[in-house]
Fold this sequence. Notes:
By secondary structure, the protein is α+β, with helices and mostly antiparallel strands. Helix content is 12%, strand content 17%.
Amino acid sequence: MFFVNDVFIVSENRINMSWDSYIDNLLAQTKDSSGTAHADRACIIGLDNGASWTTAGHPNAMKVSF
């Protein structure tokens, strides 16, 4: 297994990198000093084409439609 342009290569099959793991980190960053979270959903959207980089499969994913 190795990386080529942020894509995992396993044997000859490509598996796209998922940004879903960053949703938890984004939400954790919204907590204030008392521990109150100020967001409960998140998504990452690409600037180049507006495509969602996160999937709807994460429990805290913001479902975006156009």
